[in-house]
Amino acid sequence: MPETYADVFESLARHGVIPREIAERLKGAAAFPNLVAHQYGVLDWARVHGLATSELGDLDAFCAILADRVREQA
Known about the structure:
Number of helices: 5
């Protein structure tokens, strides 16, 4: 059982559910909520914006992969 959000993406890649490249990028993005939660008001808003907008393509790709797998199972 994965212990962290990053571990979820690692496990999905290891089991061939998602490509390794996407897993690696999403593992990096998985730390984002902790970054926000633990900065206590001293966030670099340019970095927040950059992370939030740069990862959307990977999120779209991840959702598309999962949707295709669900269709294959139907």
